[in-house]
Specification:
With 344 residues, the protein is α+β, with helices and mostly antiparallel strands. The chain has a domain of 206 residues: Thrombin, subunit H (Beta Barrel), CATH 2.40.10.120. Helix content is 17%, strand content 28%. The strands form 3 sheets. The protein has a 6-stranded antiparallel barrel. The chain has a 6-stranded antiparallel beta barrel with strand order 10-11-12-15-14-13. A two-stranded antiparallel sheet has the order 2-3. Strand 8 and strand 9 form a beta hairpin. The longest helix is centred in the C-terminal third of the chain and has 21 residues.
Length: 344
C-alpha cells in the first residue's frame, strides 16, 4: 500500500435505509482464499498428496460446527437499519458483537443459525473503548450452541483462520485466510487503543463486524472489527482489500465474563459538563436561590430576545438536534489511518 493510501472503515455494520427496505449487493467471486496445489513428500512411498483437500475439509468442518452459533444482528437507528454479525458465547442466550454495530440503536433483533427466527435482544453491555457489546436473547426451552474461545496468544503468522458473518446482508458467509500479522494496535470508537489485534487476509466486508474469527479447531480467536481500505464505494462503504483486523479473544473473553459500558467519543462529548457548575455546598443555605431582582431582569432580557427573533423570523437551534459527525470521518485522509468500521 502506497503512502497515499488510507486505512478506512469497512462499514462492518451495513446500512439498509428506510423501514422494511432490502439491501441488494452485486457480488463478484474472484477466488480469494483458494489454495494452490501445494504438495508434500510422502516419505514411505515417495509420492505426493495435495494439501488443498485437507484445507477444504477443515473449512467445511469449521463452518458446520459454528454456523448455528453465528448471529445476524439488526439494529434500528435514526439513520435506518444497521446490520452486523455476532456469535453465541453461552447456552443461556448471551451473544458477542461489536459496539459500533448496536451504537445508537433504539431496538436490536437477532436471528440465530441458518434457519433461526428473528427475536428481540437486550443489550447487557456496550463498551466503545473496547468496541465490544454483549447481547442477551431468551432461548426459551432451547439450549443454544455456544462457541468456545481459543487462546489468541498462541496464534502464529501463517495459521489458517476462518470468518463467518453477514457481509452486505448475505447471511452466514464463510471466508478463509491466514494470520497475516499479530499484535496490531487498532482504534476503538472512543479513541482508545485496542492492543494485540490479529491481522488477517480473510475477506471481511460491511456486515462482517462482530462475527467470529475462528482457528482450525473452530474456536474463536478474535472478533472481526475493522479493515484497511484504499477507497470507498459510491455508497460510502469501503470494501475488502485483504487487510482485516480482529479483536483478540483474550480481551473478548474477559469482556464477556465481566461486561462494561462506556459511551462513544461523540456521546461522551455531549454529556460533558463543567464540574464547577454542578457542585453545590450543602452547608450554604443560599446556594441555588435566585435573587428576585436578578430573576426579573433575566425574564425581561429573555422576552426581548424572543421578540427580536420573531421580528427576524429566526428560530433558536436545538443544540442537541444536530447529529454528531463520525469522529473518524474528518480525519486527514492523505495519510494512512485506522478508522471505525461504521456503516453510516
Amino acid at each position: 500500500m502506497t503512502p497515499s493510501s488510507k486505512l478506512a472503515a469497512f462499514g462492518a455494520c451495513a446500512l439498509i435505509a428506510g423501514a422494511g427496505g432490502a439491501g441488494v449487493a452485486a457480488v463478484v467471486v474472484d477466488g480469494h482464499g483458494t489454495s494452490s496445489m501445494a504438495t508434500t513428500a510422502a516419505a514411505d512411498r515417495g509420492t505426493v498428496r495435495p494439501v488443498a483437500a485437507t484445507t477444504d475439509d477443515t473449512a467445511k468442518n469449521v463452518y458446520d460446527g459454528a454456523k448455528d452459533a453465528v448471529a445476524y444482528i439488526s439494529a434500528q437507528t435514526a439513520q435506518g437499519t444497521a446490520t452486523g454479525s455476532g456469535f453465541v458465547v453461552s447456552s443461556d442466550g448471551k451473544i458477542i458483537t461489536n459496539e459500533h454495530v448496536v451504537d445508537g440503536a433504539t431496538s436490536v433483533t437477532v436471528k440465530l443459525g441458518t434457519s433461526g427466527k428473528e427475536q428481540t435482544a437486550q443489550v447487557l453491555g456496550a463498551d466503545a473503548s473496547k468496541d465490544l457489546a454483549l447481547l442477551k436473547v431468551d432461548p426459551g426451552s432451547t439450549k443454544l450452541h455456544a462457541l468456545s474461545f481459543g487462546d489468541s496468544s498462541n496464534m502464529q503468522v501463517g495459521d489458517n483462520v476462518y470468518a463467518i458473518g453477514n457481509p452486505y446482508g448475505l447471511d452466514h458467509t464463510l471466508t478463509s485466510g491466514i494470520v497475516s500479522a499479530l499484535n496490531r494496535d487498532i482504534q476503538a470508537p472512543s479513541g482508545a487503543t485496542i492492543p494485540g489485534a490479529i491481522q488477517t487476509d480473510a475477506a471481511l466486508n460491511p456486515g462482517n463486524s462482530g462475527g467470529p474469527l475462528l482457528d482450525a479447531d473452530g474456536k474463536v480467536v478474535g472478533v472481526n472489527s475493522q479493515i484497511a481500505s484504499a477507497g470507498t464505494s459510491s455508497s460510502g462503504e469501503s470494501g475488502n482489500v485483504g487487510i482485516g483486523f480482529a479483536i483478540p479473544s483474550k480481551l473478548v473473553q474477559a469482556f464477556a465474563e465481566n461486561p462494561t459500558s462506556t459511551p462513544a467519543q461523540s456521546d461522551s462529548q455531549q454529556t460533558q459538563q463543567d464540574p464547577q457548575q454542578s457542585q453545590q455546598d450543602p452547608q450554604d443555605p443560599q446556594q441555588g436561590q435566585v435573587d428576585p431582582q436578578q430573576d426579573q431582569q433575566l425574564q425581561q432580557e429573555l422576552q426581548q430576545q424572543l421578540e427580536q427573533q420573531q421580528q427576524d423570523g429566526s428560530q433558536q437551534a436545538d443544540p442537541y438536534g444536530d447529529q454528531q459527525a463520525d469522529p473518524y470521518g474528518s480525519q486527514d485522509q492523505s495519510v494512512p489511518e485506522l478508522a471505525l468500521p461504521g456503516g453510516y
